[in-house]
Specification:
By secondary structure, the protein is mainly alpha-helical. The chain contains 21 helices and no strands. The longest helix is centred in the first third of the chain and has 34 residues. It is globular.
């Protein structure tokens, strides 16, 4: 595909994804904050425990084919349908397996209700399996507008059920029932948008390469789940469900805004990187542009939440959630680090380096769990620090391989991250200077607004004055792609 067409697809995809996700955030956050005042911290802790085995199974249920089907453009529709049939069979077996292990998980955490929650949540596995083929087809065809509308519909249904169930006093199952409802509507819409019925998986020897790639993706995802859920597991085991409930909200506040920004790009990247996988120069260009663009938005969000964590938590959740503040601040640092290398794994995956990605994930699965277990011996803030220190160590080898794959000089990588870093430093200095002059009795919401205004203004001015030319490059790309 020509560079101009890819640029247009990139900008259009980000635009539609942005529209759907930002509208979704308004709906989702309204529902989340409403539910937080009707549910207990222990309810969130219980569901976090229940999602540990469910989340692990959801990572391997599709046999990695959601990635393989987008990356491998030599697969025809018949082969895709047979792989889809294999995914559905695997999902049925995994659902049955969850029902068997649910009582053991409940005994491990000493929470009997977990048996019911796990069995209920396991139904999402079947919906996920049915979604694999139509979602991959839409991504291969760069049909981002359709994907955006489906996501918005899913969030609306999920949020509506969350509010109704929380208000009805359903308790912890509320947080699973809402996700089941959203998965159901998304499945229906995806099948209607890209209908391709699964077929019985015959002739699998002819599909040896995608099966091997899928196996490596399963190992990678299993390892990823091991280290990404290590913090919740350690807190639930050593510190209890109330501590896990507080930590879950710290994760939510540190991640949500940044996730929306990164999702705007990472939902579009598979199709774009897959289309340009044979062109290192194009991949290098997109990697630098997108890394810098994400950092421009995500870095100030991380810094802003960290600087105003005390008033943010007080205004949004109330005084009973005060234990969220300290881990939230540390987690913001961790999230900023992850943002800086968010596209590294995409380079490895969408250029077909499944084996390297697998071994790197296994390395991270060794380093990070050890770190968080040590941190859990102290507090939930200790766990947050374990992530902030352990993750850079675990991710460095992957960054080295990715920059070599696209022939990217390290200094160019650093230059892409420098402008938002410098602007955030200026923003932090101004906010810290303003805070002591605010009236001690000011309402948290007003204090938050004033600090946010001071920080945002400083950040924008710093970029406009010091790095105007760099920002202009991104602006010109968006304008030219939109005009074409």
């Amino acid at each position: 595909m020509a560079a101009e067409n890819l640029d247009r697809s990139l900008v259009s995809g980000i635009g539609w994804t942005a529209l759907s996700r930002w509208l979704s955030q308004i709906v989702s956050w309204a529902a989340t904050l409403y539910a937080a005042r009707h549910l207990k911290p222990g309810d969130y802790g219980l569901v976090s425990m229940a999602m540990l085995p469910i989340g692990l199974v959801r990572l391997i249920e599709d046999f990695g084919f959601d990635t393989v089907l987008v990356q491998n453009r030599q697969l025809d529709r018949q082969a895709i349908a047979r792989l889809g049939g294999l995914v559905l069979i695997v999902a049925l077996l995994l659902t049955a397996g969850l029902a068997i292990v649910a009582p053991a998980v409940a005994r491990f955490f000493a929470e009997p209700l977990l048996t019911t929650l796990i069995m209920l949540g396991s139904t999402m596995i079947l919906f996920d399996a049915i979604q694999v083929v139509p979602r991959a087809l839409l991504q291969r065809e760069l049909r981002y507008r359709t994907l955006a509308f489906i996501y918005l519909a899913q969030v609306i249904v999920t949020s509506a059920v969350l509010v109704l169930a929380a208000r009805g006093g359903v308790g912890a199952p509320t947080l699973i029932l809402n996700n089941i409802s959203g998965a159901l509507i998304a499945t229906i819409l995806l099948v209607l948008a890209a209908p391709l019925l699964p077929r019985w998986p015959r002739g699998l020897r002819a599909l040896r390469d995608p099966l091997l790639q899928g196996w490596r993706m399963i190992v990678s995802r299993g390892a990823w789940y091991g280290y990404s859920s290590a913090d919740s597991t350690a807190i639930g085991r050593f510190l209890g469900k109330d501590a896990l409930g507080h930590y879950s909200f710290a994760v939510t506040f540190s991640n949500t805004a940044v996730q929306e920004v990164t999702a705007l790009v990472t939902r579009v990247v598979p199709g774009i990187f897959s289309s340009a996988q044979k062109d290192p120069a194009a991949l290098r260009r997109y990697f630098l542009l997108l890394t810098e663009a994400i950092a421009y938005i995500a870095f100030p969000m991380c810094a802003g939440v960290a600087l105003t964590a005390d008033v943010l938590v007080a205004a949004a959740l109330g005084p009973q959630w005060g234990d969220v503040v300290d881990p939230l601040r540390v987690l913001c640092l961790y999230v900023a680090i992850t943002v800086a290398q968010i596209l590294v794994s995409h380079v490895l995956l969408w250029t077909g380096r499944f084996r390297a990605n697998m071994w790197l994930s296994l390395f991270a699965c060794l380093v990070i769990p050890i770190a968080v277990v040590i941190g859990a011996q102290f507090s939930i803030t200790g766990v947050a620090w374990a992530l902030a220190i352990g993750f850079p160590i675990a991710s460095l080898p992957g960054a080295v391989l990715a920059v070599r794959a696209i022939q990217l000089p390290w200094q160019d990588y650093g230059r892409a991250l420098l402008p938002p870093t410098v602007a955030c430093a200026a923003m932090a200095a101004v906010v810290l200077l303003v805070r002591p002059y605010l009236p001690p009795g000011m309402e948290p919401l007003k204090s938050l607004g004033l600090q946010a205004l001071a920080g945002a203004t400083t950040y924008i001015v710093a970029l406009a004055v010091v790095y105007r030319d760099r920002v202009r490059v991104l602006y010109d790309l968006i304008r030219s792609a939109g005009a074409s």
